[in-house]
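task queued by scheduler; priority normal; single chain, no ligands, no partner chains; default sampling; output format set to C-alpha cells
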Amino acid sequence: MAVGDCSRFVVVVSVSVGVVCVVLGFVIGWVASPSGVDDDAYNRWVDALSEENDDVTRMILEEMKTENIKNYLQHLTSQPHLGGTEEEKETAEYVNSLWQEQGLDSSRIIKYDILLSYPRKEQPNFVYILAEDGTQVFRSAAEEAELEHGDRHPKAAPPFNAYAKAATVEGDLVYVNYGRVEDFQKLERELGMNVTGKIVIARYGKIFRGNKASHAFSHGAIGLVLYSDPADYAIDNVTNVYPDTWFLPGTGVQRGNVITVKGDPLTQGYPAKEYMYRHPEEEAILPDIPVQPIGYDDAKKLLERLSGADVPGGWAGKIPGLKYKLGGLENNLKVKLEVNNYNEIRPVHNVVGMIKGSIEPDRYVILGNHRDAWVFGACDPSSGTSIMLELSRTLGKLVKEGKWRPRRSILFISWGAEEYGLMGSYEWVEIPDAPEKGGLVYDNWKANFPVSSSDRPRTPDLGSGSDFRPFIGLIGIPAIDFSYYMDPEDGLASYPLYHSMYETFHLMSAIMDPTFEFHLVIGRVWGEMTRMLADRLILPINCTDYAERMKESVQVLKEDFESEMLARSPPITFDAIDSNLERFAMAAENLHQRIHAMDKTDPFAIRAVNDQLMFLERAFIDPMGLPGRPRERHVVFAPSSKNQYAGVAFSGIVDLMFDIENVADPESQWKEVERYMSIVAFTLDSAATTLMDLDVLANDE
C-alpha cells in the first residue's frame, strides 16, 4: 500500500490511486453540419462541446452511503486474503460479481502467474538467543497473541518478510536505529563499529523495509531483525494499546515485503502471462540475507542483552525499562536467526470494470485500489476497496437510470498482490469534511498542511508506496494518491497497526471510524475528482502549478549541492536547467492563456489542447531510466533510491550527489553528474515544446 498513513483521530483510507489515463486514440469520428443533413451527427457534435452537468456532483454526494461502505468492509475482512491464495481469488470474484450487478458496462478478471513468497507454518521463522554452549536462552513468538475475539484465523500467515532469503545464521547483534544509510555511516565513521559478519536489529519507520535490508547487506551484515518501537507505534503508553485503542501492542508484528524491484521478479518489464519467458530464480534480484519481523515485547529480550556504548542522541526508542545500547551481546551470547520462507509461482488476479464514455470512449480515467492483504487488511487495503465499491455502485446507478454517462470512459481496477511489490498494477499497467472535523475538506487540508509560499495546501511528491508507481514512473500517466493522514506532530511512523494481525473489522468499526463518516468523505472527494476528470470539456490539469513545483525543487537542489558543484573546475552550473525551466514556465502560461481565449466550439481544437495536457507527463519519461535504475524513468518525480516510500524531485541528481566524495571513483561520478544535468535540461526543454502552439513551433528556432 501507499504507506497509508492516517491521523490518530481519523481512519486510514487506502485509496491507492486515481490515475488519469487518457489514452491516445483517433480523432472524434464524426463530421457534422448544422444543415440538418444528419441530425444524429449534429447532436453528437453539440454534445461533444458541452460542459459537464454540475447536478451530477449533487447526485453523487447524496447517493453514497456509509452503511454500504461498512458492509463491504465487513465482507472483505471476514477472512485473511494474502496474495496468491484461494481467499484472495474469492475476493476477486466478489468484486467482479458486484461490478456486474452494479450496472458497469463490463467487468472481468485478469490472471497473472507471479513469483510470490510465503512462510512455512510447519517450520516457523524464529529469532533465538543462544548461550555460549549453544543452549537456547530465548525464542521469539511464532505468531501474534489473540487480544480480541476474531483476531486469530487458521488461514492467517504468521509474521514474515516476503522474499527474505531462506537461511539460518548465527552471530553477534548490533542495534542500527532505523537502518538508514546515514545510520550505518554514523556507526562506521563516527562510532567505529563494523557490522560485517553480524546480525543487525533495526526499528521500523522512516524508510522502506526493503531498503533497510539492502543497506544492511551492503554494509556486511548477515541477517536483519525488524521490530516496531513504541516511540513510533505506541506513543501514548504501551498499556494504552489495541484492542482498546489503535496503538500497537507489544505482540503486534508488521509484515511486509523486502524486495526492491517492482513487478514479477522473473519477468521484469513484461507481463507475467503463462507464455512469458521466466528467468531462473537464481538470476532474479531478490534479498541477499534473511530478514524477520518481531514485536517489541520480543525485541526487548534482545535489546536488553546488548552491551557496549549507549546509543547516540535520537537513536533511543521508548521500550519501557530499556537502556538502548549499540551492542554486541553480553556474556558471549549469540543470536540465531532462522528464516524458512519459500518462493512459489502462483496466480494473482486483477479485476477490471468499465463505464464506457459517451463522447470520448477511447480516453480513460482509472480508479484503482489493491485488494490483497497480509492478514485481514481492514485499513490496508480494504478501507479503500470498500469506498471504491460504493463509488462504482453510485456511478453505475446513475448510468443504469439514464441520469448520466461520463464523457470519457472510467475504469475501476482492483489490483492483486500489491503487497508483494505492486505486482498487479505493474503487470497491467467543495465537499464538507466529516462531522468530527467540521468545515470543508480543502480548508482543513490547507490548515493542517500549509505551504509558506502559497495559499494552497502541501502535496508531497509521489514515491513508490502503491499502485500509482508504474503509471507515473514507467509510462508517464498523471497520478493521484490520497488518504486521511495522521497529525504530523504525533511522530508516528505510520498508522500503528499497519500490516499486523490486528487490522480487523473491530479496529475500524469500534475504534478508528465507527460512523464510517471519514470513509464517506474520501468517497465523495474521489467521486468528484472522477467526475471532473471524466466530464470536463478541458482536462483540469494546471501546467503552471507543475512549473512552480519544479522551480521549488530546483531551489532545494541548489541549497544542497550548488556550492560543491561550483567548486569544481570547470564549475558545474544549473544555468541550462534554469533557462529551460523558465522556458517551460512560459510555455505553460501561454498554453493556459490560449485555452482561455480559444474557440470552444471547435472540437478538434479541444482535442488538441487536451492532448497537450494529458501527454505532458510523458515528456518527463526518459526511456534510458535514471542513473543505475533503468526501471525508474520519470526525470522529475521518482522514489528515493535510499527509501522507496519517499518521493524525491530530480532523484537522479540527488542519487549521484549523495556522499559523492566517498564513492569508489569520485571523478567518474562527477562526470556522470555533469552528463545527467544535461539530460535534465534537455528533458525540461522537450517538455516545454509539448506545450507550445503549432504556429509557434513552426517558427521556433
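post-processing summary
- Residues 420 and 495 are 19 Å apart (CA to CA).
- The first strand starts at residue 15 and ends at 21.
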